[in-house]
Design a protein that fits this description.
Elements: E1 3-5, E2 8-10, E3 16-21, E4 31-37, E5 44-50, E6 56-58, E7 66-71, E8 76-81, E9 90-97, E10 110-111, E11 115-119
Parallel strand pairs: 2-11
Antiparallel strand pairs: 1-3, 3-8, 4-5, 4-9, 5-6, 7-8, 9-10, 9-11
Length: about 120
Amino acid sequence: QLQASGGGLVQPGGSLRLSCDASGATLDYYAIGWFRQAPGKEREAVSCITTDDGRTFYADSVKGRFSISRDTTKNTVYLQMNSLIPGETAIYYCTLSSYSDYRCLYEYDYWGQGTQVTVSS
């Protein structure tokens, strides 16, 4: 239902833009977002955006560096990631949430397969 793309290898300080295509989603949802998970570490919330009015929410660790946006005509959400650091190497998963407030950062009804982001020199 979700197709995440845009991951890859980037140097520290670099940028990447991830995409999440939710056009195939069949369940009701009110926000689309992202979390990430590195090997051996717990899942970490990243960002989410509400589908009705485009309100955005960010984890403190990415505020000021990451930006989430949406293209309602394509039912696609983008995550622009700037000033990446090696500690942000992880698989980034796109999510659907039934919450239209800050809880979309932490409560998901569905997530896709993810895209690998590697930050390394």
